[in-house]
Design a protein that fits this description.
71% of the residues lie in helices and 0% in strands. By secondary structure, it is an all-alpha fold. Helix 3 runs antiparallel to helix 4, helix 3 runs antiparallel to helix 8 and helix 6 packs across helix 8.
Length: 195
């Protein structure tokens, strides 16, 4: 199993020359960042999932820096940031937004309110002309962030924290169970009489 995981991950040399991780330089030469141990793997995956869910950009450098600080497995931390990708991005962020609204106690948007807001945006676009200017786009984006930002940030923080902790416990537990199972199997094989 270890060998199969190692073939999927980037090599030490590949990560050292990666454009997002090059700034870490000599730190990437530390052997503990590349060792496959229970704690290192579990922590690496947890860190990668945490940053993969929490921040939409610069996930790899943040997870790599955290892996170095926490002595986690660097390839696993970088690889597990891909938990959010173009396929999962929409559902994760929508779910986080809805969770944030529930946690903050904000009322749900009804369908009629959503349709009214959509009509308002369409009317604004018609009034502004075919293409809004960059300043208009930036102003609209800031307004969207102001209305959706707080629930989204709260939801993402909750989901990222719980997912990271769950993955850490799950991987550690499965690793321990597998180690015990292999140990028992070896002891049984030793205790069998030779034919």
């Amino acid at each position: 199993m270890k060998q199969r995981i190692k073939t999927w991950l980037s090599t030490q040399d590949g990560l050292r020359h990666h454009r997002w991780l090059r700034w870490m330089g000599p730190v990437l030469h530390q052997p503990r960042l590349w060792h496959f141990s229970r704690k290192g793997i579990a922590m690496g995956v947890a860190v990668g999932i945490f940053f993969g869910l929490l921040v939409p950009i610069a996930q790899m450098p943040l997870s790599a820096a955290a892996a170095v600080l926490l002595r986690a497995n660097l390839p696993m931390a970088v690889a597990s940031t891909f938990v959010t990708n173009p396929v999962t991005f929409g559902p994760v962020y929508y779910g986080a937004y809805r969770l944030g609204k529930v946690v903050l106690g904000e009322p749900r948007v009804t369908e009629s309110e959503a349709m009214a807001a959509l009509e308002r945006v369409r009317a604004e676009e018609k009034a502004e002309g075919a293409r809004p200017t960059w300043s208009q786009r930036i102003a609209r984006g800031v307004e969207h962030l102001r209305t959706a930002g707080k629930p989204l940030a709260v939801g993402l923080a909750i989901i990222a924290t719980l997912s990271g902790l769950t993955v850490y416990v799950l991987i550690s537990g499965l690793w321990i169970l597998k180690t015990r199972w292999e140990r028992k199997r070896r002891l049984r094989e030793r205790s069998l009489p030779d034919a």
